[in-house]
Amino acid sequence: MNEDRKIYSRRKLRGLKESKPSIWEVGKPSSLPLSALLNGGLDSSRWIALCGPLAAMTREYCEEPLSEGWEFALPFTFKHRTATYRHKTYGTEKTVRLISHREGWFPGCEDADTVAAAYVALASEWTATTGLPLLSSPSKTGQAYLWEMLPKGQDFPALPADVERVVRANSPQHRIEQFVVEGRESVEALLHRCYQYDGRWMYANLCAIDRLPVGEPRKVGGFREYQPGWYRTAVRIPKDWNHIGLLPVVLHDGWVYPSLPGGTVKGWFCEPELTLAVQNGWEIMEVFDGYAFDKGRPLLPWAGALCRMRKRLMGVAVKAGLAAPDGEKWKALNFAASAVRQILNHAIGSLHARGYERELFVSDDDWRMWRRENAGWFDTHNAERVKGGWLVSHYVPDNSPLSINMSHWSATIWALERERIARAALRCDGKEGGPGPEVLVKINGDAIYSTERLAWIEEEDKGRVGQLRRKE
Question: Which residues pair with 199 in a beta bridge?
Fold first, then answer.
């Protein structure tokens, strides 16, 4: 074991302090410039929560304070609409976040009064349940609580560097795939009138499954179903296969799922999808290499507590007779409940994070060299043209004491999601008079789009977390 590898175990966090935000709207004619909000002398808050349309928080809006006595205290990343400023004279530091951003507390909530009420409801429930304060982001708040909810008496080692490289290089998050059928309308034409089914907070349910990898990885030369791990194999697709692909392979233009009958798929695959393939007649020809783990439920106590918390917040409106969606209090409570979902989902993503995403300026003179040295970067990122060069993103290590780097946990949860959706799609097999695979239009993460109603999903849905449901 490398001496610098972290060992994670349950521990109490002390000294965390809540910094309540100052909440303002952006994008209205009456909205103040950002420098005016930063200069608010009567407001002692260390961070400012903005709500409004994403397009309203422009780069120009974020850079306006730089001509009014402020500077960026940390490298600025415009993509996430978050910036930390320092006053050049007084040294005051304040962080600005677009709280209605998809990575913020209340995505889609663009009204300051609703945000304020939602924050109060969330903070009250969170503190009463956890004894911890809300931090400035859902991911950090979720990480802090995870430290206190890891199973007692167990240690969880971080991955060795060589295994971590395998996991990171072979672990896409969502499956995003469109299905083109000869003679059928285009996917774009069909999507607006498809039947859509998606998972009900699927990540929370997957945290409870006894298939997460724990302990030290072991070198193996074979594969066992339901044995957590990553396996470098060659798998043959059945000659009579006429359905979707089951194993992800990365090509120059992204992740694909080969499905050619009789073809061979080679690569590193995570256990859930490899198990699904084997159970559907795909033949493992050879296992060239592999890392297997013990299995466990290290995230179960944490996810269970968050599920109960969200259920309580959702129940408050119902018990109070405030279930009308147009009621202001209902909206606030609904956004507060949704914020608990944000905490869990983004904390899981943070287990996989390499660090913080920052912007890097690459001059025109250095651009060609940078592109050669970072050829794969353009698969998942876009460069922004600015005066004299380009802005690109890069990662800096996350040295926060709250960070938990367990990429094999997050990667397995992602694989379990892909496996569950693929398993659901495979039920469109044309048997017993049901729809065949030709009804599938798109898989988008935990969602399936179909040209026909998938009755079995609607019949089996009992409203539980993790189940597929029809989305109107």
Answer: 468
Q: How far is CA 288 from CA 59, 220, 268, 291, 327, in A?
A: 49, 9, 10, 11, 59
Q: How many domains is the chain built from?
A: 1
Convert the pLDDT of each residue in 181-204 to its tens digit: 988 999 999 998 999 999 999 999
Q: What is the DSSP letter of 160?
A: P
d(CA 285, CA 235): 6
pTM for the model stands at: 0.90
> Which structural domain range is residue 371 located in?
356-396
Tell me the pLDDT band of 71, cut-offs 50, 70 and 90: very high
Given a cut of 60, is residue 324 above it in pLDDT? no
Residue 37, token pair as written in the block:
């909000």
Tell me the range of 71-85, 139-153, 369-383, 391-405 where mean pLDDT is highest: 139-153
What is the full DSSP assignment across 84-138? EEEETTT--EEEEEETTSTTSSSTT---HHHHHHHHHHHHHHHHHHHS----SSH
Two tokens, residue 278: 């084997």
Contact 64, 34 (CB under 8 A): yes
297 vs 42, residue with greater confidence = 297
Q: Please give the Cα distance from 287 to 222 (Å, whole number).
A: 6
Judge whether 56 lies within some domain.
no
**155 occurs within a structural domain:** no
> Residue 155: beta bridge partners?
9
Q: Would you say residue 373 lies in a domain?
A: yes
Q: Is 380 part of a structural domain of the chain?
A: yes
- Residue 39 to residue 439: CA distance in whole angstroms: 57
Task: Report whether 95 contacts 46 (CB < 8 A).
Answer: yes
Contact call for residues 379 and 254 (beta carbons, < 8 A): yes
Q: Three-state SS for 210?
A: coil
Q: What angle do CA 150, 219, 355 make, to 5 degrees?
A: 45
